[in-house]
Amino acid sequence: MTNISNAKIAILATDGFEKSELFEPRKQLKDAGADVTIVSLQSGSIKSWDQKDWGESIAVDMTLDDARESDFDALVLPGGQINPDLLRVETKAVDFVKSFFNAGKPIAAICHAPWLLIEADLVQGRKMTGYKSIKTDLINAGARFEDSEVVVDNGLITSRNPGDLDAFSSKIIEEVREGLHKRMQQAA
Question: How far apart are CA 127 and CA 54, in angstroms?
Fold first, then answer.
């Protein structure tokens, strides 16, 4: 079952996100029924990086100032080099990431986006993956690096690069569905 029609998912990004790493998970999550919200530092639109040059822009649905973890069931962090590097120096972005972890909600990070998980101090002792150039960063922060298309550890979903997007998106859907199921059981 891939229906997550009751789910609300935030995608946190800013200028320089890798185009496919936002657009493809967004498409697959929407196709599974989720309500997907693009959250960024400022209103307006943000511009993607498409392999070797600037690419398509996407409208921001909500600013980080207005976003609350309690309004969402999961958080997706697209990569690219520029996007996570800009976000990891923004305290409110790091705090937003931490709030999902502290609430036990899935956080999915691909490519260079695990830099945000490092900055939020969430990787110590966890199995993770990421783009090959951040392997040392993850290991130095205490992660147990695994070179796999998707790795899940205690609600942290990580993948390496755009070639892993189908596995990444499928795992997000699976983790969100399980989280919704658990919350429904607890409420009953």
Answer: 32
